TrEMBL record:
SUPFAM superfamilies: Ankyrin repeat (SSF48403), SH3-domain (SSF50044). Keywords: ANK repeat, Cytoplasm, Repeat, SH3 domain. One of its GO terms (cellular component) is cytoplasm. It is found in: Cytoplasm. Residues 25-46 form the SH3 domain. ANK repeats lie at residues 122-154. Induces bone resorption, acting probably through a signaling cascade which results in the secretion of factor(s) enhancing osteoclast formation and activity. This is Osteoclast-stimulating factor 1. GO terms for biological process: signal transduction. InterPro entries: Ankyrin_rpt (IPR002110), Ankyrin_rpt-contain_sf (IPR036770), SH3-like_dom_sf (IPR036028), SH3_domain (IPR001452). The keyword Repeat applies. Coiled coil: none annotated. It comes from Cyprinus carpio carpio.
Length: 197
């Protein structure tokens, strides 16, 4: 889960360019789906290493970088220092760019080996994060992919316990079949008024 990042020395949107060294004097560059050869003196020689490029692509909402990572077989379930997967980080993007976050999550969830229930060092899964942040669309996506609702974090809380709005809590309750495996949800006060299930 590590890549080297090179800097283009000419006018380009740096988030859309990728390089692969072909020969000592030429690079293969890809930008917005078009590929061509670039002389080596157009590329900065000092490379920067980035750990967990899939995580970075998810955090930044960089769809083309995410696809490039997948094309180059970067591990989708790799963990960062906090034990988070790229799917977990993609959940945090929704606040800033909901459309891009939705696209990234859809791509990640479409991968056959995407681990939905990986717990980070706090014991949270992507479902915990989505429920806590109140992203009902992501909660629904994860539930449709059969994310487990019974996973408890280090504080002994399920995703339902972490739910901060009635819509997330309702989706989680429906998946549980109405069986409540908790004593109190952050959304409980809303459920009394709004949830008639």
């Amino acid at each position: 889960g590590q890549v080297k990042v090179y800097r283009a020395l000419f006018t380009f949107d740096p988030r859309t360019v990728s390089f692969n060294l072909l020969f000592s004097n030429w690079w293969k560059g890809t930008c917005r789906g078009r590929t061509g050869l670039i002389p080596s003196n157009y590329v900065a020689e000092q490379a920067e290493s980035i750990d967990n490029p899939m995580h970075e692509a998810a955090k930044r909402g960089n769809l083309s970088w995410l696809r490039e990572c997948l094309d180059n077989k970067v591990g989708i379930n790799g963990l960062d220092k906090a034990g988070n997967t790229s799917l977990y980080w993609a959940s945090g993007l929704s606040l800033f760019c909901p459309i891009m976050a939705h696209k990234i999550k859809k791509i990640l969830l479409g991968q056959p080996n995407c681990e939905l229930n990986q717990q980070n060092k706090l014991g949270d899964t992507a479902l915990h994060a989505a429920a806590w942040k109140g992203y009902s669309d992501i909660v629904e996506m994860l539930l449709n992919k059969n994310a487990r609702t019974d996973v408890v974090n280090n504080e002994k809380k399920t995703a339902l316990d972490m739910a901060t709005n009635a819509q997330c809590a309702s989706l989680l309750k429906r998946k549980l079949g109405g069986v409540i495996l908790r004593t109190h949800s952050n959304a409980e006060e809303y459920l009394d008024d709004e949830d008639s299930d």
